Amino acid sequence: MSRIVALDTTDIRFPTSLSLDGSDAMNPDPDYSAAYAVVRTDVDDAGHAFVFTIGRGNDVQVAAIDALAGHLVGREIEPLLDDMGGTFRELIRDSQLRWLGPEKGVMHMAIGAVINALWDIKAKRAGLPLWQLLARMTPEEIVGLVDFRYLGNALTRDDALAILRDAVPGRAEREQQLFATGYPGYTTSPGWLGYSDEKLERLAREAMAAGFTQIKLKVGADLHDDIRRFRKAREVCGPDFPIAIDANQRWEVAEAIEWVNALAEFRPAWVEEPTSPDDILGHAEIARGVAPIRVATGEHAQNRMIFKQLLQANAIEVMQIDAVRVAGVNENIANLLLAAKFGVPVCPHAGGVGLCEAVQHLSMFDFVAVSGSREGRMIEYVDHLHEHFVTPTAIRGGSYMPPSASGSGMEMKADSIAEYTWKGQHVFV
Predict the structure, then answer these.
(1) Residue among 71, 218, 361, 384 flagged as catalytic
(2) Is 218 a catalytic residue?
(3) The Mandelate racemase/muconate lactonizing enzyme C-terminal domain covers which part of the protein (predicted)?
(4) Spans of the chain, pLDDT less than 70
(5) Which positions ≥6 away from 182 have C-beta within 8 Å?
(6) The pTM is what?
(7) Which CATH architecture has domain 4-128?
(8) 171-416, which class in CATH?
């Protein structure tokens, strides 16, 4: 047996606001940041994970992760790794910490960092990338990872087992398909709101040349600007190339319907986060009001219960999970099973630092062991900050190629951690 000897945390911030990378209608000056966590054992293995933020408040997120040290330090790690479902439930059900949510917000994301770090160790010890470790579990083992509390009126344990058992035939074949052709990606890189028209046009051309089959534009600050920018994108991409739009929660419900319909002539592939991520009924009203344009959301959905309600209300036609917004791998497995139950495609959010590296494992697991499909599914790609990771994403022909390195892909390079540790101002030493 080995023991956990430390839960180390670091406040890491990249000054992306200086170049307006990541800028949108609600977040004009983001500094892509990571509240970084490392679970260390007395046999010198370590699990790495993080919570993504955009600058101010990253210190709060670090403190929340620190608050979980008492649950881990000094404990034998093997029982925790052998029962990751039980470990997950123990953490999210700590009654005093749960009071801060329940099961949402800064504390819930902190639990996700710890859970993801433990999965990193488990995958490294197995010598497998996380997606492959998960995809080779039995349906019964996968179901054991999920907390079905509050899901029973939409997804039961038996429902989940049926979905997973149906996907067992063809698992090996789908693994080989991933290695051959990868998982489809789309790119948001041309569409940041702070970019000039010339930069938008150049990056859109580059995205098409690279093989991406969809781009996304940020919208919502000014309708006339959105019309102009969308027209520029259409001139570059042609009338039939898929272009999605993302309002980043900017609008009231009626405003969203009016605004999206004003852009309908450009045929948006979907409208993303049109209003508050907690407004399930608002999303449902928007979905009815902008049809046949699809509504997508989920990157700020706080837990599996929000996803359940969005699906039950027919409020979304594209579900977007985030690798670090909810409480880690376990809760995202629940989200993937919900999407499969309702027949809604999952197109994960991956804008930010390290999110591409992390969420690809969940989509690839979904393809092999849950939905069994890549149809209508793609992972967001943003070409920022990958060089800071030990195993950066590999894109070929606009598709994510499956990682083969063991672990979750969330480990950052030591030099990058040292250089971008926050010093209290935009001076990195």
Answers:
(1) 218
(2) yes
(3) 197-293
(4) 21-26, 425-429
(5) 396, 397, 399, 400, 401, 402
(6) 0.96
(7) 2-Layer Sandwich (3.30)
(8) alpha beta
